[in-house]
Amino acid sequence: ASTDDVSMVGVGSEKEKLIVEAYIPSDPGPYPQDQPKQNSVRFTSTQVGAIVSGIQPGLTMVVGPPGTGKTDTAVQILNVLYHNCPSQRTLIITHSNQALNDLFEKIMQRDVPARYLLRLGQGEQELATDLDFSRQGRVNAMLVRRLELLSEVERLARSLQLPEDVGYTCETAGYFWLLHVYSRWEQFLAACAENQDKPTFVQDRFPFKEFFSNTPQPVLTGQSFEKDMRAAKGCFRHLKTMFQELEECRAFELLKSTVDRSNYLMTKQAKIVAMTCTHAALKRKDFLQVGFKYDNLLMEESAQILEIETFIPMLLQRQEDGYARLKRCILIGDHHQLPPVVKNMAFQKYSHMDQSLFTRFVRLGIPYIELNAQGRARPSIAGLYNWRYRDLGDLPYVKEEAIFHRATAGFSYDYQLVDVPDYHGRGETAPSPWFYQNEGEAEYIVSVYMYMRLLGYPANKISILTTYNGQKLLIRDVINRRCAPYDFIGPPNKVATVDKFQGQQNDFILLSLVRTRFVGHLRDVRRLVVAMSRARLGLYVFCRRSLFEQCYELQPTFQLLLQRPDHLALNLNEVTPFTYRHVEDTGPIKLVSGVEEMASIVNYKLNQVYQVRMMGHQFDPFSAYLGQVAPSTGAPEQNGLQNSTSWNHAMDTDMPAFSNGAHEDVPPESKSDDVPQLETLVNQDGDVQVESYPNGEMGQSVLADDKNVVAVERSSNEENKMEE
């Protein structure tokens, strides 16, 4: 019995034997455009779980806190669906054009051919690409591609010594493929099966060798049968793809009208169609009329979309035999950020209409996957909002990358709450109902922005946010008044409200909370989460401390903010936007007492710039704030005016060109009035005059008050009138 058992075990072990061998991917083709685009994103285990769930039939819900890679996860779901289910079509819906364009730009970087992508709606022109993904743009691209492919077919016919008229239409090209190309390939494969022992056989007998003679690298080497056979199959795959594309172009050849072509593109050709929920609602009747079909629905920003706007994209197609064709619905959003905007208070409060379907599902206990690692902000800044989430940690990237360990140059802290007292005896004002403004915060924020620009921070890395439209418009006015005269400062990347900036980010955020009497709508914690989570490297909040520190709903964030001084802490020893100082090392701290002192520091740095410009007649001392260079009569002045190239070049790099020793002393901590104030005036002869203001005038800054705007900010025309 024992020997029988042993023999049975032996038989069983033979059956269970596994053969493991390395997978070698097939050759994609000999040309650079044949190589597949590689995915550079490394996903966390939670993101992988969300992607696996997203490709399963049914409903998938993904909660994505700020900076956790919602868009990358959505794009990978689309990528996997396209490659695993090539016959299925996917509809992408977002709330805003900005989010849709961000998603679409990432899809274009993946291995999905551009001919299968379509972007509908008005925001298409804002896409950061040279390609046109509108309906008309895609139709034109298909027609251009058709001509390119037919010319390749003619070249292939010449290489096979056949008549070139096979490349006249897509139809003739299809016959050419069957009769001449595919038949030659089958004969070649049959011959190779009998001659595998000859290393040079593939090189000698490959039928399309002449056509592929223009490849960057030699395709067939003759050294090994296996290597050459793999390369030959890659070449044939290139030919097969070429004729498949021609078959897809055939419909555009047969259809003559633009409308028919664009409808065919939308209903048959495009595999991934993207639009906003507003466009879907407006055009639903047209989609039903032309027979629009799709199998998968992916909805980004779904926590910002009204319930009815969530249902409409699910019903853009007619049922087939009583069954819905929709197979997958993927909702991605964050119910801890801002809800849909409902302006009617009755609908909002009593009907609870501002609750999205996504939020309703979360509240009802529908299972969802919550992404749990953010890769946007410094861990210290992420601490201001991650208390709102269940288990939000940091990706290794933000812990290891050097840029997150270095301090913000010119500032002692990477984030800070700055207490702004009444300015000229006033706090918040409301010129009209709900139109709140705070002049002190606007002046303070613009002064800090100018300080950053004078250090050399690029303008596109700084955004100014506020919680009210009135303050947004006031800040823009202050920027136009104070920054526009200086070509080396210019406007920031964006001045926007917190609500409009949801879904976007920037390296440095200057935030104005405006209110001084009542907390207002920032009491909604979701708005606070959005406001705190926009910055990557630096966040500076300007507000009335005594008001916001008492707000119970905002306590977790403001307790963290108030662990640091409530006066802006600068490091005036740093004069460039780069520092090796560690983020936890504050360096020498200069606490700014208020709006006036901050403006004085900015003036001091501006004066340093003018002194550098005038040194040695090397720089033009006034072209930064005059629209044109005044004519000069003296030879030395002419020389000085013409040699401004180096300064202008420095400004092109977004960094003021300080010479050695230009920043000798920082302004004294106690008396900002000791800083000399320089005013440059240009007379009608073009001579430059430099005058110093007495100490008494320094408190009312050149850049801080409308009443004291000096000739530095006047245009050349106004100066001429004044002197006349």
From TrEMBL:
Residues 47-344 form the DNA2/NAM7 helicase helicase domain. Residues 662-674 have a biased composition (Basic and acidic residues). Gene3D superfamilies: P-loop containing nucleotide triphosphate hydrolases. PANTHER family: DNA2/NAM7 HELICASE FAMILY, RNA HELICASE AQUARIUS. It holds the Pfam family AAA_11. It comes from Davidia involucrata. GO terms for cellular component: catalytic step 2 spliceosome. It comes from the Eukaryota. Residues 633-677 are annotated as: Disordered. Residues 635-648 have a biased composition (Polar residues). One of its GO terms (molecular function) is helicase activity. Residues 353-545 form the DNA2/NAM7 helicase-like C-terminal domain. This is Putative intron-binding protein aquarius.
